[in-house]
Amino acid sequence: MWFRIILFNALLFALSIPFQNCGPGFKVSEGLKPKVIALDSTLPPVDGKALYAQNCASCHGALENSVKSRRTAEQISTAIGGGVPQMAALPNLKALTSQQVGAIAKALDMSPPQVITCTGSQELQTSPSDLQRLTKVQLTNTYKDLLPDDVFQLVQPLLTSLPEENLADSVDRFNPSYTLTYTEALMNLATQASQALTATDQRLNQFLSRHSSCMNFQSVTDACVLEFIRRLGLRVFRRPLTSNEVLAHETLFASGGDTKDRFQLLLMTMLQSPEMLYHFEFGETSQGTNTEFNISSYELASRLSYGMWDSMPSESMWAWAEGQQILDPVQRNNLVQQMLTQPRTKEKAVRFLEHWLGLARVPGTPTNAIFLKGINTSGLRDEMIRETLQYLDHVIWQRNGSYQTLLTSDVSFARTPALASIYGHALAADPNAGTQVMATERQGLLLRAPFLISSEDKTHPLVRGAALRRRILCDSLGAPDPAAIGSSPELDTVQAIQQYSQAERLALKTKPAQCTSCHAQINPLGFALESFDSLGRFRTTEINYDSNEVVISQHLINPSVSNLNIEVGAPNASLSAKEFTSIVAASEKGPACFAKQIFRFYRLRSEVADDHCVVSAGSQAARVSLWSSFGKYFSHPSIVAKKVKP
Amino acid sequence: MSHKKGPLSRRQFLEQMSLGLSLPLYSPLLLSLLSRSAEAQMAAPPLRFVFIMNRNGQKEDTYYPNLPGDQQAPNLFAARLGDIVGDISPVFASFGSLKNKISILRGLDSTHITDHSRTSFLVGVSQRDNKEGNLPIFGASADWIIEKSPLFYPQTPLKRALRFSINAGRGFSFSNVGGNISELSYVNTDRALFSEAFTGVSGQPTPGLDLNQRKLAVSDWMINSLTRLKSNSRLGSMDKQRLQQHLDTIHSLKQSLGSPIKPAGCSVPTVNYFTSGQQRRRIYANVSDIIVSAFVCDLTRIACVYVEDFHDTNTDYSYFHGLSHSSPASAADTATWTSHSRWIADRVAELVTKLDGTLDADGSRMLDNTVVVWGNEISNYWHRGESLPTMVAGGGRGKLRMGQYIDYRTRPFRYYANRSDFPAVGRPYTQFLASLMRAAGLPSSEYEIYGHNGKFGEFTRQTFDNKEYDPYIATRTDPLPFFYLG
User: What pLDDT does residue B177 have?
Assistant: First the structure.
């Protein structure tokens, strides 16, 4: 599990420990001069290209034409670990260390993408997808849309107690199956909801009249029951019931006791129907093949509504589906534009932003009073996160801003003296007006406090660097090999802290060859942000404290960093943190990663080569408008396509 | 009624079909042709509490799962117990089927313990003069605060609580009326506990519910639907496997529904009382039977059990005490100690399993409507209060998060006096007690009068010198984040 934590880059504290300890027992020499330490690793990394040629090319083709282009280290490890039995049986693959797998992934990432022309029928290209179940959020929202408010309030605690999906580490961890715990919970949920709906005459009559033309269950007619089954069935199954399904439900209803009992049994059963619990997509049987086809108009309505809202289609969408207008690209685009204006579309987008940026896992603020210099940290972490979300709202929705704007705007929405002080401006009379401007050395999303703070009085450049690589640039990093991680206590002594800056000590710790394949990627990005302390304040001097909060050393910050290695063609060095974030803002990789992150969150899986067109469309849109990047994902032609995993 | 008019309506036709004549697909539903009972049967079952404590502490390595978990918030990690393959830990080996119904909490610190303290468990304070037989220096225990609340007992119950301890003069429950602290009485035999619960009870059974059969019928419907869907040619092989897995869970659910679950309905149980020479586990088996039966009859909603035994025949506390303080460096001592801790854990598991196998009036499992708390006098093999071992089962109708190993220890780890053989520092244990009382429906005004400076429990920090608990001065009786769901 410890290994997995590092692998999936979620626990920032835990992540810092293995990386910082990487390296053999390095001896600090009395005679060493501090400035001889290069902040970027210069030793050659593990040769991923050679490893690929030795171990992979015979099956997957030469690297430049590899059919496994852009496979991640996680995907390769999974395949070797048993996901692909043929690979798991090969001893040479089993013997690969995680560093070597990481290097192969890196080589695959550097290989040119398969050339896919995103025009005409190519735009319908999509990768095979699994049958998905409703997520906890989707199930909760579906119940909310199906049930009267008072009944939903009654069952909400049961929905809250459903197992969490723990997607923070990776959306690929989503378990698309229902476990026994989940199945039991669903049974209890449907039981309680059906009991509540029939608990009083008034409540049952209200529900009956909502889904049929009948007003009173005690005088219900056969026609009423039929209408009720059809109308409620449309919402529960998210498509019209077939005649056999209607008959089956009528029979079910007839098998109950008194009338109220019959409704209770019917509701309890419908609320647990597999058709409600899964996103079945079968298309029209007369169209396509069993492995590739276009989904039906009703399935598309669900794809859009669950994609954008995490809930069932609205009443008007049923009409769009029934009339099949939803299948027309122009009309579908109009529908998507309408849906983008809905508050719940934005609510889900905000959940995406929180997920993408890991805002739930922002650490607490440091406690060293000398270090804090009078900054009041009470509620400060929450204010940092709130301000970041308001900034995102401002750029994405108020300004309809681009990716570049997101990373370079200098506006601040700090509402407390503490955060205003950190961001280097005075509090305006109206902090929401967008008139507060951050100090000149700071800009955009990446130099905001949530991405800089740690709970200690020292920075964690490796945590910052790894997060930037993974979250912002979508680079894959291998996991450190536990056997290769050494401790370097010599570099944590008072003497070493006096002699070297934090960045210099980390450079030394990660200098051994087995570390460089990843740390050549991580270190420069982390070191580029060293001008900001662990509370997110700009600084020119690094100050180190002992456990008694006494200053033991000071080092001038060198804000220049080389070997950024962001992408071919991008500047490879920066003179300041601000310049570094400008390079990311102007890169191809930044907006492309943003589009990939949207894909991952909304599809609950990582993108592969066949998803290139929709990701590419989102990437291009993000350069103009981040919000249109969301819309592009849903209006893209491939939204109607379905490919079944064999 | 209009739908009965005419020679043979569509529904009448279907009713006849469903009477087992021609629709085998739905034949299980015939079992659910059940009359509707009184509205009262649909009311939510009452919330109950069981508090269990044993003497001394736990060896951390054999008690806690070896699972670091995912960070949920600063200084808050959690892992799903269901993700553990095999035993949760050596001590919790009997909880394999209960992984989703319990939570194990780590990093809940009593800020004052310097000796064995039975007053820490539910009062959250030290005992007078630091002598373990003494009363708490102030306050009252959470079980008493809950039982006296009209919010918990809207109507006066037959018994506000059942309390059992082999040593009747030694419990962990304390009342506080007008500032006068008293130790609440315990009974010390299974026979006495039975009399305490059932004297004067006629054993009138309440009408049974047919909800279980209804669930069986719905399970059959789901099995049919999933089986049909699984054959769709537009599903991939993995999709079909997932549907099969879902089918398997429904079969398991159906099996548990059909297994001999104690029917809901009050009756005076028959108890084969413990007699000298029998294994001592029998006492606790009887105690748990009596508690479950008392809950079924709603004679009480609170039970307290002090498990002072640790072995079927050995009752030598001085031996047990000595072993509990042995260093984990001794593998032999640790193995022996773990076998005793396991014996105690098995008694807890037995009660939890019985609660889980008993249906409440609405068809839900009694365990799901109950909060079972298992705690200790001290934390590990030292007289320390950091990380008091705490397990909770049931969750109290979703008020408390179950199925988790929740670790509240401060990161990076800090230790009192830099002693890494002491448990690492976490957050105040009083937050846990506040979580329980909030789960019982009590507002803070009902319990915060029993502590320091308007807060529940003790907060002295007397043995700490590095401001470990300063961040919690204002929040030390807020409910625990992540664990308390409200």
Answer: 81
CA distance B205 to B364: 18
Nearest to A127 by CA among A474, A642, A600, A598: A642
Query: What residues of B are in contact with residue A174 (Cβ under 8 Å)?
Result: none
Contact A235, A147 (CB under 8 A): no
pLDDT for the residue B41: 40
Inter-chain CB proximity B68 and A2 less than 8 Å: yes
Chain A residue numbers with beta carbons less than 8 Å from the beta carbon of B39 are 199
Sign of the Cα torsion A74, A76, A79, A82 reads: negative
CA distances (Å), origin B288, targets A114, A286, B372, B389, B393: 66, 62, 12, 22, 15
B174 CB-side CA count, 13 A:
29
3-state secondary structure of B405: strand
Confidence (pLDDT) at A105: 81
Which of B36, B100, B243 lies nearest to residue A181, judging by beta carbons? Answer: B100
Q: What is the pLDDT of residues B404-448, one digit of tens each?
A: 999 999 999 988 877 888 899 999 999 999 999 999 999 998 999
Joined together, the tokens standing for residue A560 give: 């220049």
Which residues sit opposite A544 in a β-bridge? A553
Nearest by Cα to A459 from A546, A519, A386, A544: A544
Run of H or E residues at B306: strand B302-307
Which of A13, A195, A381 has the CB atom closest to B411's CB atom?
A13
CB A372 within 8 Å of CB A533: no
Residues 6+ apart with CB under 8 A from B276: none
Which residues in chain B are contacts of A182 at CB distance < 8 A?
249
Cα R_g (chain A), whole angstroms:
28
SS3 content of chain A, % helix, strand, coil (to 5): 55, 5, 40
Mean pLDDT of chain B: 83
> Which of B71, B75, B99, B392 to substitute to test the interface with A, most A CBs within 10 Å?
B71
- Secondary structure (3-state) at B150: coil
Question: SS3 of B307, please?
Answer: strand
- CA neighbor of A581 nearest in space, from A485, A468, A494: A468
Comparing alpha-carbon positions, the chain A residue that sits nearest to B256 is A184
The answer to whether B218 contacts A268, with C-beta atoms less than 8 Å apart, is yes
Measured CA to CA, the distance from residue A403 to residue B263 in angstroms comes to 62
Who contacts A597 (Cβ-Cβ below 8 Å, separation ≥6)? A352, A356, A471, A474
Distance CA A536, CA A2 (A): 28
Alpha-carbon distance values, B136 to B132, B436, B444, B448 (Å) = 9, 20, 21, 16
Whose tokens are 């498509």? That residue is A239
CB contact under 8 A, B236 and A381: no
CA distance B29 to B218: 8
Q: What are phi and psi of A337, to 5 degrees?
A: -65, -40
Residue numbers in A near B233 (CB within 8 A): 290
Cβ–Cβ < 8 Å for A560, A574: yes
| The pLDDT value given to residue B39 | 34
Nearest residue in A to B34, CA atom: A257
- Look at phi and psi of residue B305 and say left if phi exceeds 0, alpha if psi is from -120 to 50, else beta: beta
The Cα A192–Cα A186 span in angstroms is 10
Q: Region of B479 please: left (phi>0), alpha (psi -120 to 50) or beta.
A: beta
How many angstroms away from the CA of A22 is the closest CA of chain B?
A: 18
- The pTM score is 0.60
> In chain A, which stretches have pLDDT less than 70?
1-45, 58, 61, 64-67, 69-70, 82-86, 110-117, 120, 168-170, 172-173, 256, 479-487
Residue B376: helix, strand or coil by DSSP? strand
Instruction: Please list, in sequence order, all residues whose beta carbon lies within 8 angstroms of the beta carbon of residue A338, skipping any fewer than 6 positions away.
Output: none
